[in-house]
Amino acid sequence: MAQAPNVLEIVKASGGSRLKFAGRLDAEGVAGAWAQALGAASETPRIRVDASEVEYCDGSGLALLWELQRRSGAEISGLKPEIAKLFEPFAEAERQEGEPKGKKSAVVSIGKVAVDLVRDLYEQVSLLGQVAVISLRVAVRPGELRWRDFWITYERAGVQALVVVGLISFLTGLIMAFQAAPALRQFGVDIFVVNLVALAMLRELGPIMTAIVLAGRSGSAFAAEIGTMKVNEEINALTTFGLDPVRFLVAPRVLAGILVTPVLTIYSDLLGVGGGLVMMLGRGYPIVTLWRQLTASVGINDVLAGIIKAFVFGGLVAGIGCLRGLQTKSGPSAVGISTTRSVVTSIFLIVVVDAIFAVVYYAIDF
Amino acid sequence: MDDGAIIEVRGLTAAYGDDVILKDVSFEVTRGEVFVVLGGSGCGKSTLLKHLIGLYRLASGEVLIDGGNLATATGADRQRILRRFGVAYQSGALFGSMTLSENVTLPIEEFTRLPPAAREVISWMKLKLVGLEAFGNHLPAEVSGGMQKRAAIARAMALDPAVLFLDEPSAGLDPVTSAELDALILELREALGMTFVIVTHELASIYAVADRVIMLDRSKKGIIAEGRPQELRDHSTDPYVRRFFRREAE
User: Fold this and answer.
1) What is the DSSP string of B78-99?
2) Is B139 in the A-facing interface, judged by CB distances under 8 Å?
3) ipTM reported for the complex, 2 dp
4) Which residues does A62 contact at the CB level (< 8 Å), separation at least 6?
5) CB contact under 8 A, A98 and B190
6) In B, which residues are within 8 Å of A59 by CB distance?
7) By CA distance, what is A55's nearest residue in B?
8) A29-88: per-residue pLDDT in tens?
9) Are the beta carbons of A89 and B129 separated by less than 8 Å?
10) Residue closest to B161 by CA, chosen among B70, B29, B30, B66
């Protein structure tokens, strides 16, 4: 960058220094003179500023004059009337440092986190209750649900997820078989790879992977969509129309989530087990042997165990997505925060609920 | 004050796809002038503004700001033209994750070599000009809509540009703040020789500050009146223009 133009001349005298400014006091000129001028001002007790040869003075120049006046009480003379007029509002003004945002003590912060957690839990339970009531009403009077929204959500969350769910499931089944086969081979029982893959896919991985994909694809989309509506005051508009946002926005999505996830899970199960079988076919086992092994190792209860979970996961993911959307605060980063929270909470709860299912299934020997 | 034109618009045609909004519009804005663009809703005021500041590509014609053409300039030349003007958007368009003070400081930090202390003083001064010096450490979401608008004007003025484009600056402001804003515009023009291009409906404001106005019309897709607001009100041959300035119903 070019050398800053020299706008400052310092004349030292016995009574105090005189700072003589000339030319253009703009960002460029002031950048060069700022440190020099304030340095001179701090050295001598009394300082005079002569601005009679200043042709142009913008915000940066005014800032320098103001800082000189504040730090060392400099007398400013010779300002052109139009510049003096611009300087006038600041001449007597005190700059208040903004009050620092209050720091909270550890106890207050912990308390706040606890209260937030309880409130969040309350809101989750409350939303669950509202959705349950609306679902019952819809069962009696199907016209109450916005079916258009339901089908749109069903398509977006279900049909459009087929490729990603299918690919992930197929490859997981394949990989699992790949990894298990050499270990079981050592005992000469590598045909049991079929049992391993089928049970794991049907009871655990099918529903869990489907739910996680749903959380990433659709739960986050619900949070972002409803969150943006919240920021734009569209939720307020619904409320003042007397349209309950839960009935209008949440119910179709949650219902779609509940009904689409089991279907996706069955699809995931088929492709996952298929992946394992493809691997076994590759190792030279005939299809008839594999089929016998499969039908002997899994029962209808294994399939049902996964599908029952899928209903719960679907409602959970869709509900959390909608709830996080409704909880969105104002501001541009709010929607991003809601989206992240929806995915994190969903995945966390999927695992927790899955653990509960494991215990319950074990206890009732299902 | 130099009397030459700082903005030259020649044969500007603005269109969204096949939908032509403005056709063959030409005018000049003189240095140090307060120039107001007005017209009924949907006549293309904001469209014109966005074409002037280079956000939208012209369908045809050219816009020169201080001799530079944003449509063709690239790299350093484009930066130089962009530095010549500031824009305060209708909704404020403040950066939501930064405080008001940081919003004003950002361009100063990026484009000048001023030390941090100087940047802070300038930012405080700009905020004080719009009456927001006590809110420097607030986020945009924490202040009212009118305050966001004023902060946006402070940010647009951060680098003391030669031209300031204001899109509906006084909409949503209370009458006192609005009058103060008018006074501020006139002061800045006098002291710094700043040029203002203002898109507004506010008649009181227009009479207070405008040197010259152009009035756009939707059906003619162009300028239907040009001149001093008082003259247009009293002597325009077009009854619609007279009604507009007198705020009369048809």
Assistant:
1) HHHHHHTEEEEBTTB---TTS-
2) yes
3) 0.76
4) A83, A86, A87, A90, B122, B125
5) no
6) 122, 125-126, 157-160
7) B192
8) 898 888 888 888 888 777 888 888 888 888 889 999 998 888 888 888 888 888 888 888
9) yes
10) B66
